[in-house]
Amino acid sequence: MTKAYDPNNIFARILRGEIPNKTVLETPHTLAFHDIGPQAPVHVLVIPKGAYVDFAEFAAKASAEELVDFHRACAQICDMLGLTGPDGYRAITNAGSHGMQEVPHYHLHILGGRVLGRLVSPD
Ligand code: 5GP
After folding, report:
1. Confidence bin at 35 (pLDDT 50/70/90)
2. Of 20, 24, 68, 116, whose CB is crowded by the most CB atoms within 10 A?
3. Per-residue pLDDT tens over the stretch 75-109
4. Residue 1 — very low, low, confident or very high, per pLDDT cuts 50/70/90?
5. 20 lines ligand 1 (CB under 6 A)
6. Distances 118 to 82, 88, 97, 98, 122 between C-alpha atoms, Å
7. Residue 121: pLDDT band with limits 50, 70, 90
8. Is the dihedral of CA 48, 53, 56, 58 positive or negative?
9. CB 19 less than 6 A from any atom of ligand 1
10. Secondary structure (3-state) at 64
11. Which of 29, 71, 98, 107 is catalytic?
12. In Å, how far are 26, 82, 118 from 101, measured between CA atoms?
């Protein structure tokens, strides 16, 4: 079961305008901004404006409108940032302690601009 949403998490505060961000794209249900500690030349975080802790909760509970808006925004960001060519990119999301999720508001990391290595390290 997903834990309760914490309205004071950093991304909730960004959505309320309490913390600045470098916005890449904003749509009715979605905000995308540059990660504060980029791990690749392109490192963008895409978040729904709704209060969802992780991917599973968003996938299960978001409206069709929110789901479409979020994923179309992701596609637009990949296009805007030049990631749709043959070099590709990675879109990943972390959840919970095993996933080492740091911020408990669902977010998709979109990374690109270099070879990103294997998805999971052996340790
Ligand atoms: P997670 O580990 O939860 O999947 O990823 C959280 C991400 O949020 C990290 O990559 C981290 O650098 C980023 N992050 C944490 N605080 C802030 C912030 O205040 N602003 C921005 N733009 N990114 C943040």
Report:
1. very high
2. 24
3. 999 999 999 999 999 999 999 999 999 999 999 99
4. low
5. no
6. 22, 14, 20, 17, 9
7. confident
8. negative
9. yes
10. helix
11. 107
12. 23, 27, 19
Q: How many A from CA of 33 to the centre of ligand 1?
A: 10
What is the C-alpha separation between 117 and 98, in angstroms, rounded?
A: 20
Q: What atom in ligand 1 is closest to the CA of residue 37?
A: 12
Enter the tokens of residue 5. 């949403």
Q: What is the pLDDT of residues 2-32, one digit of tens each?
A: 789 999 999 999 999 999 999 999 999 999 9
Name the residue at shortest CA distance from atom 15 of ligand 1.
36
Answer yes or no: 29 catalytic.
no
Ligand 1 site-directed mutation target among 35, 54, 92, 93, most atoms within 8 Å of CB: 35
